[in-house]
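Record 1 of the preview.
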Amino acid sequence: MTIRLFNEDDVAVISLINDIDMQEVVNIRNTIAQIICSGCHQLVLDLSRVQHINATGIGILAESLRRIRQLQGDLKLAGLNPQLRNVFALTGMDKFFHIYHNRHAAVQSFKKEKCVAA
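->
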């Protein structure tokens, strides 16, 4: 798996390329933890190039979401294909994550939240 990181409008974007399996969940968890420790609490996980995620991967994302929300931030998902959307729906995790059609929409949602709070 390849993990690409970049900043878009003060939001950390993590773009994953390939499937999320047992070998990669540790890398993903560590990457998210490093971003949080750097002080960034607005993250978007771009899954548009991911075809499969296992239960451990979903667990790591849920754990990361809980941690970020405790810090008054959020982890939003973007670009899920129908199969991934189904996995999140079947596990009930679609009720906890904000899921967007694409990365741009997820990043923009952080701007809208700031405007409402102001």
